[in-house]
Design a protein that fits this description.
mainly beta, 155 residues, globular
Length: 155
């Protein structure tokens, strides 16, 4: 479906999507049980990334895997130097700039997904991971800096 890379923090994973947000919390992209789960697209988003807001989730693993190093972007200097996310979709590559890093409630409005008919412009990408407090999440807000169409996809 997609692939995400975040240079500088070791994120280099496939992105999957389930019928709800539960399956890939505990299963890899190929269906194997695993506590690290997968990086996954919110089930409410369109699989082709045409919503105005796209939300990607990943675990905050103690071993440094998945989205555990998103916390480094709390440092503004690090964010300025390493604030790039690459999303490889079947027909294009999106280079995104990390514009904000903050902790939010699990009920924050950042998790609202509205699908607007006729509006196929991706305006923001949200990366979300759990934090030490069970009712808080660490989120990165990203904006598309460059979109490059691909002739052939490696996906």
């Amino acid at each position: 479906m997609a692939w995400i890379q975040i240079p500088g923090i070791g994120v280099d994973y496939p992105v999957v999507q389930g019928k709800d947000n539960e399956p890939y919390l505990h299963y890899t992209f190929d269906g194997k049980a695993n506590k690290a789960g997968s990086i996954f697209l919110d089930y409410r988003n369109r699989a082709d990334f045409t919503d105005s807001k796209v939300i990607l989730y990943g675990h905050n693993m103690k071993d440094g895997g998945m989205f555990s190093n998103l916390k480094k972007y709390q440092d503004e200097e690090f964010r300025k130097e390493q604030g790039k996310v690459l999303l490889y979709l079947p027909d294009k590559v999106l280079e995104c700039e990390i514009v904000e890093c903050r902790r939010v409630s699990v009920r924050d409005s950042i998790y609202e997904v509205e699908q607007e008919e006729g509006k196929n412009v991706l305006e923001q990408i949200i990366l979300s991971t759990c934090s030490s407090a069970s009712d808080k999440r660490l989120v990165l807000k990203c904006r598309i800096a460059l979109e490059q169409r691909k002739l052939k996809s490696p996906l």
